[in-house]
């Protein structure tokens, strides 16, 4: 069985994205990495952030996991800023750490997003799909989740979608 990690990219460690991850991971079968607990600077062509947490984190992820699930809230019709910085830093693996980046080939990538209501815009998944393709990874799909009108619970239809997504992992 392959080893899966959920990479959480939210400005709130225990907010709605965490609730969605907890539901997806209700059997505790996946490891979770919270990007908010890491120091990851933005991409820089001079690699000024080479000593932050990104490269050691990627070494760990590449060594330990076959499947990467990115979990992000929808902020202004896009992935969160924390997640975007992480994706931008994948460029480090194409320039200064090519041998590490090549090890992503053949791994699986999926995505789970969430927002207050079921209003995901067309094109949201494109950066995930295109990045997987560019890096030689297999895109295994995605799902979007949303919450009840009072905002306290994951909507029942979203839970069904998450359950179906879990089956693909």
What does this structure look like?
It is built from seven helices and five strands. It has a five-stranded parallel β-sheet with strand order 2-1-3-4-5. Helix 6 (126-135) links the parallel strand 4 and strand 5. It has helices at 16-24, 54-64, 81-89, 92-95, 98-102, 126-135, 156-167; strands at 4-8, 31-34, 67-73, 108-115, 138-146. Helix content is 36%, strand content 20%. It has 169 residues and is an alpha/beta fold. 27% of the residues are buried.
Biggest beta sheet attributes: 5 strands, parallel
Mean pLDDT: 96
Uncertain segments are none
- Could you estimate the helical fraction of the residues in percent? 25-40%
Please give the order of strands in the largest beta sheet.
2-1-3-4-5
- Give the SSE string: EHEHEHHHEHEH
Structural class: alpha/beta
Q: What is the number of helical segments per DSSP (H or I, 4+ residues)?
A: 7
Distance between the termini: 10 Å
Total DSSP E strands: 5
Share in β-strands: 15-25%
> Shape from CA axes?
globular
Work out the radius of gyration: 15 Å
Short summary:
The protein has 169 residues and is α/β, with parallel strands linked by helices.
How are the secondary structure elements laid out?
Elements lengths: L3 E5 L7 H9 L6 E4 L19 H11 L2 E7 L7 H9 L2 H4 L2 H5 L5 E8 L10 H10 L2 E9 L9 H12 L2
Parallel strand pairs: 1-2, 1-3, 3-4, 4-5
